[in-house]
């Protein structure tokens, strides 16, 4: 479905890593609805500069 609607998707890690990163238990997927946050995460994931 993401490909049909041209929604960017990142597949990485496992359930334990994702759950820990977002502070919830047993989460296999999540979505980011804030377009600017999503763009920044994608930029950093693709090798962009990390500030901080």
Number of helical elements: 2
- Give me the secondary-structure category: mainly alpha
SSE succession: HH
What characteristic shape results from the CA principal axes?
globular
Overall mean confidence score, pLDDT: 86
Uncertain runs: none
The level of helicity is 25-40%
Rg calculated over all Cα atoms? 12 Å
**N-to-C CA distance:** 35 Å
Q: Largest beta sheet, briefly?
A: none
As a percent range, the share of strand residues is under 5%
Write down how many β-strands occur, each being a DSSP E stretch of 2 or more residues: 0
Query: How many structurally independent domains?
Result: 1
What report would you give on this structure?
The model has no long low-confidence stretch (mean pLDDT 86). This protein is mostly helical. It is globular, with a radius of gyration of 12 Å. It has helices spanning 15-22, 35-45.
Précis, in short:
This protein has two helices and no strands.
């Amino acid at each position: 479905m993401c490909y049909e609607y041209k929604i960017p998707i990142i597949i990485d890690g496992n359930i334990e890593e994702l759950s820990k990163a977002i502070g919830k238990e047993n989460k296999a997927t999540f979505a980011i609805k804030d377009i600017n946050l999503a763009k920044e995460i994608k930029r950093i994931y693709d090798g962009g500069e990390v500030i901080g």
